[in-house]
Amino acid sequence: MLGIKLERKSEQPLKRQIYAQLREQIMDGQLNAKDELPSSRELAKTLGVSRNTVGEAYDMLIAEGFAISRQGAATQVAEGVSVKKGEQAVIREKPSQAYTIKADFRTGRPDLRQFPQYLWRQFLHKASMETPSELYGYTGPQGLPALRTEISLWLFRSRGLKINAEDIFITSGATHALHILAELLCGKGGKVLMEDPCHSGMLQTFRKKGCLIEPIPVDNQGMMTQYLQYKDPCAVYVTPSHQFPLGGILSAARRAELVRFARENGVYIIEDDYDSEFRYSGEPISPLYAMDQQNVIYVGTFSKSLFPALRIGYVVLPKPLHRKWSDIRTYMDVQNPIFEQAALAEFMRTRKLDRHIQKMRRIYGQRRRVLLELFKEAFGSGWTPYGDAAGLHVAVDFPGIQFDEAFRKGCLQNGIYITPVEKHCIVREAHQSKLLIGYGHLEHDEIREGITMLRDAMDSMI
């Protein structure tokens, strides 16, 4: 009856199978408005199920408005609920070509093989066992107090910053922080002054929030602050301790000029402390925040120092922004997962983070030295490394050579993943001779093999 077929071994209850098939027939016009449905007794007998099962299926149809029931009358199909199936538009997407990557020089990739996963699982287990029941609810947009306290202590140990834990707000990474800051400071149509070149992902974050971008050129000392001449900006985005992608350190004079500009124009500086904890000649650079706690918003993340999937970052906010940040975060996603925050707080309290960063600083520093030595062997003196000895990548300049999109795709076809600096430029053609070489995730033999492949590719394409 009505073409209903029941799958009695299915995990879906019989009443829901009956309901779903009747609803499909009603929506498709096989059952028309005012058509009477069989009595529950009659349909139950035909299908070999209990009358209650059919009654519950009818109740679902009535509750959702697909059927109407009146006392003393048969259940009827409701009016205006038919949605006949039409021809769907076929969208043909160009298939993406898959390449087998043998030399992976992607930037911003830590060596996850070195992370103490077993230890981390212990901290997660401890957090799940010891977290009090009241923290299983909504804990608010600022983040776990214990984690904010440990971050403030860690910033004092590692950067010399004296920060009140109440000024720290936990995020789901640096990109998430920029999404909120773009809405908080700018709104659609607000103007952001950005380094050029800059991280293309961060650039797109601001653009997708409707911000207008004014590029400020970069040299080997970071943002060229003499070009800060634009009127009515809502924020300045800068990576002063290890500029991405060229790796320069913003000089003291330029830092002072940037702070003066922010104060005179009443704007906030967004300081992204991009992977500056991995510095291989001396201590990490003191953040710009140390010069001005009123106009600088400090953004940090644990994606590079621990692992990207952790999705925990933080911002240090001036007090006038606390309430508005909390409002935005509350109606965006409320909070970060509590167990990861608790585990990270304990990881930091027991100094496991400090020791892990110390260990990785040695490993990455050695890999950088190996990379530069192998580059010298492969390319002689026809290249120049850019930036400070820090981070997980190095920018390399080959004067007289142009690395364009065709070169990048040619490398992909040869199994090499590499990024020209041009890909991160707002104004094109200023850095065509530079490549970005990520090495943090590569062992020495992988670096050697990759550079050999890159040299052969350059010989064949250039």
UniProtKB/TrEMBL annotation:
<keyword id="KW-0805">Transcription regulation</keyword>
<dbReference type="GO" id="GO:0003677">
    <property type="term" value="F:DNA binding"/>
</dbReference>
<feature type="domain" description="HTH gntR-type">
    <location>
        <begin position="12"/>
        <end position="80"/>
    </location>
</feature>
<dbReference type="InterPro" id="IPR051446">
    <property type="entry name" value="HTH_trans_reg/aminotransferase"/>
</dbReference>
<comment type="similarity">
    <text>In the C-terminal section; belongs to the class-I pyridoxal-phosphate-dependent aminotransferase family.</text>
</comment>
<dbReference type="GO" id="GO:0003700">
    <property type="term" value="F:DNA-binding transcription factor activity"/>
</dbReference>
<dbReference type="InterPro" id="IPR004839">
    <property type="entry name" value="Aminotransferase_I/II_large"/>
</dbReference>
<dbReference type="Pfam" id="PF00155">
    <property type="entry name" value="Aminotran_1_2"/>
</dbReference>
<protein>
    <submittedName>
        <fullName>GntR family transcriptional regulator</fullName>
    </submittedName>
</protein>
<dbReference type="InterPro" id="IPR036388">
    <property type="entry name" value="WH-like_DNA-bd_sf"/>
</dbReference>
<dbReference type="InterPro" id="IPR015421">
    <property type="entry name" value="PyrdxlP-dep_Trfase_major"/>
</dbReference>
<dbReference type="Pfam" id="PF00392">
    <property type="entry name" value="GntR"/>
</dbReference>
<dbReference type="GO" id="GO:0030170">
    <property type="term" value="F:pyridoxal phosphate binding"/>
</dbReference>
<dbReference type="InterPro" id="IPR015424">
    <property type="entry name" value="PyrdxlP-dep_Trfase"/>
</dbReference>
<keyword id="KW-0663">Pyridoxal phosphate</keyword>
<dbReference type="InterPro" id="IPR036390">
    <property type="entry name" value="WH_DNA-bd_sf"/>
</dbReference>
<keyword id="KW-0804">Transcription</keyword>
<keyword id="KW-0238">DNA-binding</keyword>
<dbReference type="InterPro" id="IPR000524">
    <property type="entry name" value="Tscrpt_reg_HTH_GntR"/>
</dbReference>
